[in-house]
């Protein structure tokens, strides 16, 4: 006798693309049969799937749990109802804060859920060694140790691609120890092309999830790189270029970074599937990119297809395939979600990461920009943002200097980065590209060193948000002219909420709405703000030590001219 029969559904084959009527039998955690309707042994429990499609559970080959602002078990509780049954998570946010102990805690927390959570060892802690300070540092020996832990499947995205192609010894040693272990090597190399791309691939790194031009996306696929498409990559011209190839490469659809409110309101991998179809990918190809292809990438050969002997990670979908409308979720043979909600209780959160914000107060002269410059108008480097992606262009602004103080208020927004890991470092830079009112944001969720970052148009608003985040022991706060209007406490290392998932959803929604009302209008406002400090993401970024020219992998000056 089987434990469970899914009766009356139509199975979608990720091998042949056929849709056929069949019953699916489950015994324990495994599919024990895919049989003609009514055939086979009886089952202890029967699920009526009439009118529904039966497909494999969705698999996310590249994502970061912390980007949801929830802990691993809470993340599973939030995303399983959306059909995500397996993830490869890169915990480089919390590991940059708390090192190996954080990696161990994430693995243990993930094991508390029915979602399969595989883990990658962060390859860049800090993201740009020598040019920023985070709360931890992993050298090649540390990475080698972590790669041997249970639950670890990969070397996570090698973001410092400029170091790799330049022959940097530390990065090559990190990649080497992973390659010697025979593990998966994940990449991150936006628009890398030509000889440099070949050099990067020659190290054994063979995937990329970043935004590329259509030509570069094709070039990477042509050279055997697994092309992973997140939402910002799903442009019709990119999808069109890939689907026009003589053979469609084994694409993976991934989420990378999605906040809790986005997951609750729009979806997780189900949402990415719908966006892929909108961009021109055939529904069956989108399904393969959500299931079979990532299963092969992750070497999880026991899933990704509805077939006997495979793990019983299954979804029942309403409507047409392209809707990716998840009704019932089965993980390891057990129903874990139905009608958009988990069928098991959400676990509590206990964590050892309180007090990770090592800042005691906000000084009286905080956010006053002092420089040893003569009085007069000076030209300064600025970061220009855009409303679509995380690319920041080098720009210039002219500001008045009086008695050694740059008079920026009323002229431009100022980004202020303060080290929160016990060091005295502070740096700042003007930011242009958004029409911002009186207001500010402070966040300790700031890729990847997660320092104490404040962006504002007035010192008063900046102080209000900074004090709110300190009071919350980390998190995000937004102020408008009248004071703080939204807070998202992130007490777990300053990057994840210790509250139930519903609180993270509500808090991230409030912050998103407050940012948009302030004038920070972006396709992904959380990522656009939090990556202003990601010094491996083109083209100019800021760390706690200063301004970084990402492509040159060198410092860029803050002051561009003499007085005039």
Written description of the protein model:
The structure is a single chain. This protein has 564 residues and is an alpha/beta fold. 26% of the residues lie in helices and 28% in strands. It is built from 15 helices and 31 strands. The chain has a nine-stranded mixed β-sheet. A seven-stranded mixed β-sheet has the order 3-2-7-16-17-18-19, with no helix packed on it. Strand 8 (58-63), helix 1 (72-79) and strand 9 form a beta-alpha-beta unit. Helix 7 (214-222) runs parallel beside helix 8 (236-243). The radius of gyration is 24 Å and the shape is globular. The model has no long low-confidence stretch (mean pLDDT 97).
SSE order and pairing:
Layout: E1 2-7, E2 10-12, E3 19-21, E4 23-27, E5 30-35, E6 43-48, E7 53-56, E8 58-63, H1 72-79, E9 84-89, H2 92-110, E10 116-121, H3 140-147, E11 152-158, H4 161-166, H5 169-180, E12 184-187, H6 194-202, E13 207-208, H7 214-222, E14 226-229, H8 236-243, E15 252-253, H9 260-265, H10 269-278, H11 283-290, H12 292-297, E16 314-318, E17 325-331, E18 334-338, E19 341-342, E20 376-384, E21 393-402, E22 405-407, E23 413-418, E24 426-432, E25 439-443, E26 452-456, H13 459-471, E27 475-480, E28 483-489, H14 501-518, H15 525-530, E29 540-543, E30 546-549, E31 554-555
Parallel strand pairs: 1-6, 2-7, 8-9, 9-10, 10-11, 11-12, 13-14, 14-15, 20-24
Antiparallel strand pairs: 1-4, 2-3, 4-5, 7-16, 16-17, 17-18, 18-19, 20-21, 21-22, 23-24, 23-26, 25-26, 25-27, 27-28, 29-30, 30-31
Helix pairs in contact: 3-5, 7-8, 10-11
């Amino acid at each position: 006798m089987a434990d469970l029969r899914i009766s009356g559904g139509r199975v979608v084959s990720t091998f042949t693309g056929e849709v056929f009527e069949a019953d699916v039998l489950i015994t324990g955690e495994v599919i024990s049969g895919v049989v003609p309707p009514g055939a086979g042994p009886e089952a202890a429990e029967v699920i009526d799937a009439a009118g529904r499609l039966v497909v494999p559970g969705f698999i996310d080959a590249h994502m970061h749990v912390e980007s949801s602002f929830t802990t691993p078990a809470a993340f599973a509780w939030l995303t399983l109802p959306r059909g995500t049954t397996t993830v490869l998570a890169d915990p480089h946010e919390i590991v940059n804060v708390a090192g190996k102990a954080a990696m161990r805690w994430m693995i243990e927390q993930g094991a508390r859920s029915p979602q399969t959570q595989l883990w990658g060892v962060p390859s860049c802690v800090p993201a740009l060694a020598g040019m920023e300070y985070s709360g931890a540092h992993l050298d090649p020996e540390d990475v080698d140790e972590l790669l041997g832990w249970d639950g670890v499947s990969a070397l996570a995205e090698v973001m410092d691609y400029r170091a790799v192609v330049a022959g940097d010894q530390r990065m090559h040693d990190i990649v080497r120890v992973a390659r010697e272990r025979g593990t998966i090597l994940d990449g991150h190399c936006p628009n890398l092309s030509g000889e440099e791309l070949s050099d990067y691939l020659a190290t054994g790194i063979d995937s990329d999830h970043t935004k590329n031009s259509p030509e570069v996306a094709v070039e990477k696929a042509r050279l055997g790189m697994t092309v992973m498409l997140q939402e910002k990559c799903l442009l019709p011209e990119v999808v069109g270029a890939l689907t026009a190839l003589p053979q469609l490469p084994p694409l993976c659809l991934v989420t990378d970074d999605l906040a809790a409110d986005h997951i609750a309101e729009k979806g997780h991998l189900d949402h990415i599937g719908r966006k892929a179809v909108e961009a021109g990918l055939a529904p069956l190809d989108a399904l393969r990119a959500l299931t079979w292809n990532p299963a092969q990438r992750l070497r999880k050969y026991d899933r990704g297809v509805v077939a006997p002997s495979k793990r019983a990670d299954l979804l029942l979908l309403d409507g047409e395939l392209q809707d990716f409308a998840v009704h019932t979720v089965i993980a390891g043979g057990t129903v874990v979600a139905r009608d958009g909600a988990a069928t098991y209780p959400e676990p509590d959160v206990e964590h050892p990461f309180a007090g990770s914000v090592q800042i005691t107060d906000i000084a009286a002269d905080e956010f006053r920009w002092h420089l040893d410059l003569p009085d007069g108008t000076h030209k300064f480097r600025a970061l220009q943002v855009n409303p679509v992606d995380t690319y920041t262009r080098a720009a210039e602004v002219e500001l008045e200097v009086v008695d050694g103080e740059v008079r920026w208020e009323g002229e431009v927004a100022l980004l202020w980065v303060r080290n929160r890991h016990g060091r005295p470092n502070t740096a700042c830079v003007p930011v242009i590209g958004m029409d911002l009112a009186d207001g500010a944001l402070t966040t300790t969720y700031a890729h990847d060193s997660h320092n104490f970052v404040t962006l504002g148009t007035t010192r008063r608003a900046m102080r209000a948000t900074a004090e709110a985040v300190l009071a919350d022991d980390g998190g995000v706060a937004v102020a408008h002219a009248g004071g703080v209007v939204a807070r998202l406490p992130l007490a777990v290392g300053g990057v994840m909420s210790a509250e139930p998932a519903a609180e993270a959803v509500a808090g991230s929604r409030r912050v998103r709405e407050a940012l948009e009302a302030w004038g920070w209008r972006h396709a992904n406002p959380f990522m656009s703000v939090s990556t202003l400090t990601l010094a491996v993401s083109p083209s100019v970024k800021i760390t706690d030590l200063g301004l970084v020219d990402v492509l040159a992998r060198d410092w860029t000056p803050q002051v561009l001219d003499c007085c005039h």
